[in-house]
Design goal:
Layout (H helix, E strand, L loop, with lengths): L5 E2 L8 E3 L15 E2 L9 E13 L2 E9 L3 E3 L20 E6 L2 E2 L5 E6 L3 E11 L7 E8 L4 E5 L9 E8 L2 E2 L3 E2 L10 E3 L4 E4 L3 E4 L9 E2 L10 E2 L4
Parallel strand pairs: 2-16
Antiparallel strand pairs: 1-18, 3-9, 4-5, 5-6, 6-7, 7-13, 8-10, 9-10, 10-11, 11-12, 12-17, 13-14, 13-15, 16-19, 17-18, 19-20
């Protein structure tokens, strides 16, 4: 396995293409978590929710977060918008996007969180994708008391698209990892399988060991930056 740290300043606006879905184990088992209820199952937000510790994000301390249906967490206010944006361009508030897409909490889907003294874990479990995706999405964001953020994935929609990354809401100051707009056509970018986990800190994104087997990721479009690649095992 090769790991390469990606400096925040080196990350371009990447495109995300989802490979064939596969069921994968998440880093944190969501069983026993507190269910999150929304006023709108499609474009909904809930909060503020207490983190249980002080979380330093781009130099600002937060003790609460808003949980949004569309695969993201926001600070300072709700974010019910459904169309995945470009971080550092369209987003003007602090945001953690585990899998920012137009997701819907359907009959078989749920959102929940677990809070301990050292971790705050939100799981978007089996959410539908608006506009006719054939598979559901399972994604997880793990916030650490040390300021770390880990993204973990289970099922991923085979024809979905999403923004993944973090931003403090200031133009040009973000750590966007991957993004594919609904308006994009024939994008270059990233191939992302289920089971990928990403650790973001104040300095970098790095892949971390997943609880199950193979993933494949090919990063393109980096401005003079490193990229990492893992090939699927036979």
């Amino acid at each position: 396995m090769r790991l390469a740290s990606l400096p925040l300043a080196a990350l371009a606006s990447l495109s995300l293409l989802l490979a064939a879905p596969a069921q994968a184990a998440l880093l944190v088992d969501p069983v026993g978590g507190t269910p999150v209820t929304f006023d709108d199952a499609d474009e909904g937000s809930s909060g503020p929710v207490n983190l249980g510790f002080t979380f330093n994000f781009f130099g600002t301390n937060y003790s609460q977060v808003y949980v949004n249906t569309n695969g993201n967490l926001s600070f300072g206010g709700a974010n019910p918008g459904g169309f995945n944006p470009r971080l550092g361009v369209d987003v003007t508030f602090p945001l953690i996007a585990a899998f920012y897409d137009d997701l819907v909490v359907g009959a078989n889907g749920s959102v929940s969180y677990l809070s301990t003294a050292n971790q705050f874990v939100v799981t978007w479990n089996n959410l539908d994708v608006f506009l006719g995706a054939t598979e559901a999405v399972t994604a997880q964001a793990v916030l650490g008391a040390d300021g770390s953020v880990v993204f973990s994935y289970g099922n991923l929609s085979s024809d979905g698209e999403a923004t993944i990354g973090i931003t403090n809401g200031l133009t040009g100051s973000n750590a966007q990892f991957a993004s594919l707009s609904y308006l994009g056509t024939n994008p270059d970018g990233t191939i992302l399988d289920s089971e990928l986990s990403l650790l973001s800190t104040a300095d970098s994104f790095v892949p971390v060991p997943e609880p199950s087997s193979a993933l494949s990721i090919i990063g393109l479009g980096l401005f003079g930056g490193a990229f990492f690649r893992r090939r699927r095992q036979a």
